[in-house]
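Please decode residue identities from the backbone states below.
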């Protein structure tokens, strides 16, 4: 019976760790998505300021 109880505890712990990993993966994907958006905004701003600088020299 002790073996069964121990096995159940291990299964519960495994499930808990699996949920944590899924949560961590979701957070990592969210961070990557936000990072990509920030990169795109930075690039757009660089082009915008480059165009403003070119227009002001004309």
């Amino acid at each position: 019976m002790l073996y069964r109880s121990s096995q159940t505890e291990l299964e519960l712990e495994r499930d808990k760790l699996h949920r944590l990993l899924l949560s961590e993966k979701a957070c990592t994907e969210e961070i990557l998505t936000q990072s990509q958006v920030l990169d795109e905004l930075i690039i757009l701003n660089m082009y915008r300021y480059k165009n403003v600088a070119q227009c002001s020299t004309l």
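Observation: The chain has a mean pLDDT of 86.
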